[in-house]
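Repro:
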Amino acid sequence: MSPKTFRSIGQFLLQIPLWLYFAVSIYPLFWMISYSLKNNDEIFVTNPFGLPTHFRFENYINAWTQFNIPRYFWNSFVVSIISTLFILLLALMFAFAVARMQWRFRSAVRTYMLVGMFMPLQVIMIPLALLVRDFHLTNTYGALIIPYIAIGLPFSTMVFYGFLVSIPGKLKRQPASMVQAFTGCFSGSSCRWRCRPSQRLPSSSS
């Protein structure tokens, strides 16, 4: 065999684990779509693992009309947009404070924030439900938005902290205030090292 053939075979063998991982990852989506086109008899008795014997697209119509799906979509949209905006804003401010500002206990505060990444959700579910009840947030957007912000902050601050510490500390001219320093790190207006969009967007999109 020629070296090119050996190289092709080697690349194919290296791709096998990736294709297996892809199949395992895509199966839940296939399972969800397949079950959505079956009736209860097929799901629980006659055909739980195979393709639908008859594609029942009326299931989607019934779900849309009987279970107020548009309202669910709207609730998800409002909660996700507001939560994401607040997570970005608060995480940016906190990451900037611990990465670029000098103050006492900043390492301890950063560690305290990162500990939240290791808190199992199952541990806080009951206390969270009690807090939501005591603050009269039941059946409101705040019952989801506030916990989502708290849960999303540790990971977001870690991402932005890594981005901010990679920015060189020497500035072209010292800004008059920390606000100018903060905005300069992302706009490039006051920094000698101008952050290109390709360098700013990955941290924000993560």
